[in-house]
User: Fold Lysosomal dipeptide transporter MFSD1 from Lentimicrobium saccharophilum.
Amino acid sequence: MKEKAVTLLNESKTARWIALALISTTMFFAYFFVDVVAPLQSMLETDYKWTPEVFGMLGGSEFFLNVFAFFLIFSGVILDKMGIRFTLITAGLTMVIGAGLKFYALTPGFADTGFAAWLGSFITWVPASAKLAFVGFAIFGIGVEMAGITVSKTIVKWFKGKEMALAMGLEMAVARLGVFAVFRLTPIFAENGGPSNSVLWGLVFLCIGFLLFLTYTFMDAKLDKQMGVSKLTTSPEDEFKLSDLKKIFTNPGFLAISALCVLFYSAIFPFQKFATDMLASKLNVDIKSAAAYVSFFPIGAMILTPFIGYFLDVRGKGATMMIYGAVLLTVSHLIFALVPAESFGVVTAILTIVILGTAFSLVPASMWPSLPKIVEDRYLGSAYGAIFWIQNIGLLAVPILIGWALTASNPGVSEQIAAGVEGVKYNYTVPELIFAGFGVLAFILGFVLKFVDKKNGYGLELPNKKK
Ligand SMILES: NCCCC[C@H](NC(=O)[C@@H](N)CCCCN)C(=O)O
Assistant:
């Protein structure tokens, strides 16, 4: 008797785009929560006595456990060992638990406890609410990064040989929309109940995101069933082994792309933290207007990334795109650093942000779909985990480096600002030159990547879509 051919679920365009919509919407909520209190710095200072230093430490706590306790490496191993469904659910739950703790830290219910009194009794310049919020945000950080690598592996599972870079580009675009949404919605939530109300909404969104991940797992189970994936059918050579970690860290393509990743993202995300103040100082405008200019940055990247992804799917040229991205990154930071304030107007500022936004599209759109070409599928999760870990080291360290460079290159300025002297501003030339330096190094690494690609035949310049 003739066996009936099964059409795999990922062969159906509708099914794979539904799968993408489910996981991307959760990433929208996840990125929303990452920045949920970002626009509330002054409110947190007034209501909770969080100084700017305390506020800055909160940003770092997102990466703390991932970097120092190697959670991102563990997350990658868990993904390869336990599979997509288990890891998505674990990531979703971890985000909810971490967010719940951060919300509890801001409630009067916590402030009245003996635990809060104990937490407030040491390192007294950091309030108890902030200490508990750090712990919550560090746990959330494990979840959000675990979700990030699992979503990448999921996209590869559904879209490899098809519209993989477009799908990754769309997922990143939806996530960036979350960052845009947070800057619009959080202040409104906070006006009606303070920062804890904003965090509560973020928590509610994450619960919805968890349900979406859960819904996706049914599609994943069906696809696995069709593909005949089970412990019994997976041959030992297809299974992830701990020794594969050594293969990842000795793979020249992986090393080149990770170095490029940490340099590139170190000149993007930490820059975002300082950009508003830098523009306010350079343009001599207030913080609100400067923030409005900076808001074009993720929006531009959001619009462009899927188009670049589409181009990569049909035309390829992934490694070349990363080099172009590094050039634009360097040029934009050099403009910020070297064009004197007298010649730096609003038009120059917006044009430079557009150049940087284009770099922010070119590199991510081509970098993340390149990894499956460099490493084997069975340890792809660990490779994503490892590259995120290396990147997180930069995201943790660079804001500290930039903060230090800013203070060192502007002697006496922070003291004058603290004393309330009017019109005193930081000069951002040195920090911007550091960012430009990262761009130059990323540019060199782009060529290294091109060289190792040619030598090892990864096919980084080839289209993702099979004809
Ligand atoms: N499927 C996700 C691809 C990675 C997207 C990338 N995100 C990261 O690299 C995160 N590890 C760091 C996000 C830090 C946000 N505060 C991106 O371009 O967003």
Remarks:
- The domain at 12-229+241-456 is CATH 1.20.1250.20 (Growth Hormone; Chain: A;).
